[in-house]
Design brief:
The complex is a heterodimer of chains A (about 450) and B (about 400).
Chain A lengths: L6 H6 L13 H9 L3 H5 L5 H19 L5 H29 L3 H13 L6 H16 L7 H9 L2 H6 L11 H6 L6 H10 L9 H11 L2 E4 L2 E4 L9 E3 L2 E3 L7 H11 L2 H15 L6 H13 L4 H9 L15 H11 L12 H14 L23 H18 L5 H9 L5 H8 L4 H10 L1 H4 L2
Antiparallel strand pairs in A: 1-2, 3-4
Helix pairs in contact in A: 4-5, 4-7, 5-7, 5-17, 5-18, 7-8, 8-13, 11-12, 14-15, 15-16, 19-22, 20-22, 21-22
Chain B lengths: L37 E7 L5 H4 E2 L6 H4 L8 E3 L5 E3 L6 H5 L3 E8 L8 H10 L15 H6 L10 E4 L14 E3 L9 H11 L3 H17 L11 H13 L5 E6 L8 H23 L6 E7 L19 E6 L8 E2 L20 E2 H13 L3 H8 L14
Helix pairs in contact in B: 6-7, 8-9, 10-11
The chains are: A mainly alpha (about 450), B alpha/beta (about 400).
Chain lengths: ~450, ~400
């Protein structure tokens, strides 16, 4: 079977870049996941320690301000500005990695799992923590085992704060009795519904409750993850028919339960369906799902086995382009098609990061790092092409063409960008355009370029 | 090659320079209009806590369930229910009979308490047989629109960037976000329409974008967070004061798992702004307007361990506008005693929220109950007319 020469880059990466070798063998794409990527070192993501330090400086300045200490107001403003700078640096590095990585598939998978474990970066604390969760918990396990990724994300302060676990207290724990506090079942429910079994999975309200009790103790302090034995609900808990517990409060039963849930057959199917839906965009066929789930379960949750089974089906490698590129994918692939080097973003101003990257993303419907809720970005093509969001794509392309594509031959541009995926009709329309920029703009606003 | 010299996002797409006439700029007129009634559906995403917003302070069990939330200030409504303080700007509407609520309502969606499934059910309306969504995954308001006499593509507007399942389906509707103006040359429109011709999704969106750009041009509206509710409601109100009769949008921020006394007022503030903006923009049409605020489900009767509430079942719906038979809380109160609760945790629903929507569609747009029970809400028993409309 022959794979269209640009399909892997378009469907599993961030599109083509002129003069970049095209990969047509999915095995090559898989192998790249195991190799180190120079882009990760070249565009680093700040450590949790430095992020925590920024937040602590801000907290201290705010408390000084309350106490009326002199100079505290200036210190608070400076701390807020440094957090904003950090946020823009995170956005820039995210773009730069996607623009230059030799393994577009890794970047897309990082985005996929970051979305699977969505934490909306609302407010300064989560804005500072989310990029670390993606870097350490998601990217760090991208070619590893799903149970490890699940545990790393679940224990990350960003997730614990976002889904209210830090406020959950075992009602019969020492602290619960003393302070009259109780359970918050948000994280427990979303782990079942979104992260593992799926909403159709075999769990009940009782399982949610028991699991929420089991998760008590997971918390965070100013330096990161923290286990608090004093808020752990005593006793054994039964989750999905299996009991968990320890003589004294400990992380072991939580680890054990997460490990079991990660390797539940419903989880295997849920993850398989999500991957097919996200990358291929068809209603997941049962036999494909079963093949993927089997590969996953037999390997003990090895993500490489899961990816291999995803790419092993011929539907994974054939047209049509069912999905619409998310705004971030669209923008990165347009910047790559226009052959803009990632270094072009090195010294652009804060204002330009906002006006050229962040605001257009928002207008296209995808404020980066800030999905509406823990279920992440929508998968349906219809969700992304509305009159307003399509208008935002057109406006942004207009500016890009004005800026950098004035003198490009649109026929060559079309071939370098879409290759054999372009329809005859688009080839005809582009060749017949009245001016070069007009032709280049047509390529970037075409359905073929906006789909994957 | 550098990105930094000029701001490329602010430019309009100026493709080509021919002044050929564009088919998209032709004024459109409509032969018939579907009456004077106006309906606005606001989807309150995240599960609004009906027990806090329309607080049954007259129920003796409330304080024990909600030791901190029940002590927050409120405005008395009828001697049993009180209105959350953050909605007090709406009290004049309550007094003039333009504001009402329904309590202990829910859709038939149960048990998993998933926002996303709950919202899908609320917007889809559900199918008769399976208790699941209809096969077409369309919206009940779109199915209703198909039966509204004289309805055309400009009768119903979905407002905002998201795609609303509530209004999607076979009937043509319009959708637009107030910050999406587009400035295209006629020639560029022509070229684009050709490139999109073979992809219906892109084609339809592009045609509407071009047409609707004209409506918002120069109005200086911006949908930044602070003014979001105002922008959405303002755009909806403007369209409804012209040809449109139905509009829908959504407001978020209702998922109050922690510190509800702090977070809920923000969401209620946006709801206030939306209703007040609609009233101002609708002008005289307010008299024929029904605004319906609905949410996917209610929240737990008991306050949780972090001064918030978790996902529940029975909740409340809001109705505003001159068309409302207001100043009352509709519904049969199930009580909050231990044995009254659903699964010992949630407010027991005593009426299907879809019945209120169904009777509203019947009263406002002349749909017959049999039509509604067959097509709009298949399998729903509309029951007795609650008398929602004035």
């Amino acid at each position: 079977m022959s794979v269209p020469e640009t399909l892997l880059a378009i469907r599993y990466g961030f599109g083509t870049r002129p003069n970049e070798a095209r990969i047509t063998d999915p095995n090559v794409m898989l192998r790249q996941l195991r190799q180190t990527d120079p882009a990760e070192r070249r565009f680093p993501i700040a450590s949790l320690k430095s992020r925590a330090a920024l937040l602590e400086t801000r907290r201290k300045a705010r408390s000084d301000k309350k106490d009326g200490k002199s100079g505290a107001e200036t210190a608070e403003k400076r701390a807020a500005a440094r957090l904003r700078q950090q946020g823009l640096a995170d956005i820039r590095a995210t773009f730069q990695r996607a623009m230059t990585s030799k393994s577009g598939f890794r970047e897309r998978l990082v985005a996929f799992w970051a979305d699977h474990f969505s934490v909306a970066a609302n407010g300064p604390v989560l804005s500072a923590l989310v990029p670390d969760a993606i870097e350490r918990a998601v990217r760090g396990n991208i070619a590893g085992r799903f149970p490890d990724m699940l545990q790393a994300v679940t224990f990350h302060p960003a997730m614990l704060i976002y889904l209210n676990q830090v406020q959950s207290v075992g009602p019969n724990s020492r602290a619960g009795k003393r302070r009259d506090r109780g359970l918050n079942e948000n994280l427990a429910r979303e782990i079942f519904e979104l992260h593992t079994l799926g909403v159709g999975g075999g769990y009940t309200q009782t399982d949610v409750r028991q699991f929420a009790e089991l998760l008590t103790g997971l918390s965070a302090d100013k330096s990161g993850f923290k286990f608090r034995p004093g808020i752990v609900e005593p006793g054994t808990k039964t989750v999905l028919g299996k009991s968990y517990g320890a003589k004294s409060p400990s992380l072991d039963p939580i680890r054990a339960a997460l490990g079991d849930i990660a390797l539940h057959p419903d989880t295997a199917r849920h993850l398989s369906r999500k991957l097919i839906t996200h990358f291929v965009g068809i209603a997941p066929p049962d036999d494909w799902v079963e093949t993927m789930a089997r590969a996953y379960l037999q390997s003990g949750g090895d993500l490489m086995a899961l990816y291999g089974a995803l790419l092993g089906d011929k539907k994974a490698l054939s047209l049509p382009l069912n999905k619409v590129k998310l705004p971030f994918e669209f923008m990165v692939s347009a910047l790559r098609a226009a052959d803009i080097p990632a270094t072009a973003l090195d010294d652009i101003s804060v204002r330009d990061v906002r006006s050229k990257l962040l605001e257009p993303l928002t207008a296209m419907g995808q404020p980066l790092f800030r999905p509406n809720g823990p279920d992440g970005w929508a998968e349906a093509p219809e969700a992304w092409i509305t009159p307003a969001t399509l208008a935002a794509r057109l406006r942004w392309v207009g500016g890009l063409v004005d800026e950098v594509l004035q003198d490009t031959d649109p026929r060559k541009f079309l071939d370098a960008t879409l290759g054999d995926v372009a329809s005859e009709f688009l080839t005809f329309a582009v060749a017949g355009s009245e001016s070069r920029p007009e032709g280049a703009a047509l390529v970037l606003v075409s359905p073929e370029f906006n789909r994957r | 090659m550098t990105l930094s010299r000029r701001a490329f996002v602010s430019r309009s797409l100026a493709l080509g320079c021919s002044a050929a006439a564009s088919p998209f700029l032709t004024p459109v007129t409509f032969a018939s209009a579907p009456g004077d009634a106006r309906l606005v559906v606001i989807v309150l995403r995240g599960a609004m806590d009906g027990l806090d917003v329309v607080r049954p302070y007259g129920d003796v069990a409330l304080k024990a369930h909600r030791p901190t939330l029940a002590t927050q200030p409120f405005e008395d409504l009828d001697g049993f229910f009180g209105l959350h303080e953050a909605l007090s700007p709406l009290m004049p509407l309550w007094k003039s009979g333009d504001l009402a609520f329904a309590h202990a309502v829910s859709t038939p969606y149960r048990n998993k308490r998933s926002h996303f499934d709950g919202q899908d059910f609320l917007e889809n309306g559900g199918s008769a047989s399976s208790g699941d969504l209809t096969a077409g995954r369309d919206g009940w308001l779109n199915r209703a629109l198909q039966s509204v006499p004289g309805a055309h593509a400009k009768t119903a507007f979905a407002v905002g960037r998201e795609k609303l399942m509530l209004l999607s389906g076979e009937a043509e509707i319009s959708s637009w976000s107030p910050d999406g103006a587009l400035d295209l040359s006629p020639q560029a429109e022509l070229l684009l329409s050709k490139v999109y011709e073979r992809d219906p999704l892109f084609h339809k969106a592009a045609m509407q974008a071009m047409e609707l750009s004209d409506l918002t041009e120069g109005s200086g509206m911006s949908a930044r967070r602070a003014g979001r509710a105002e922008a959405l409601a303002g755009f909806a109100g403007d369209r409804l004061s012209e040809d449109a009769r139905i509009a829908a949008f959504s407001l978020t921020g209702w998922d109050t798992h922690a510190n509800q006394a702090g977070s809920l007022p923000r969401a209620l503030g946006e709801l206030n702004v939306a209703i007040e903006t609609l009233k101002a923009r609708l002008g005289n049409a307010w008299e024929n307007t029904l605004i319906m605020g609905v949410t996917e489900f209610g929240r737990t009767v008991r306050e949780n361990g972090s001064r918030g509430t978790d996902h529940g079942t029975g909740g409340a719906a809001l109705f505003a506008g001159g068309a409302v038979n207001g100043g009352r809380v509709f519904g049969e109160w199930p009580g909050l005693g231990a044995s009254d609760l659903y699964q010992d945790r949630d407010l027991m629903p005593t009426r299907d929220v879809r019945a209120y929507a169904a009777w509203a569609m019947a009263g406002m747009f002349g749909l017959s109950p049999s039509e509604i029970e067959a097509r709009v809400f298949p399998g729903l028993d509309m029951g007795k007319d609650p008398g929602l409309l004035a």
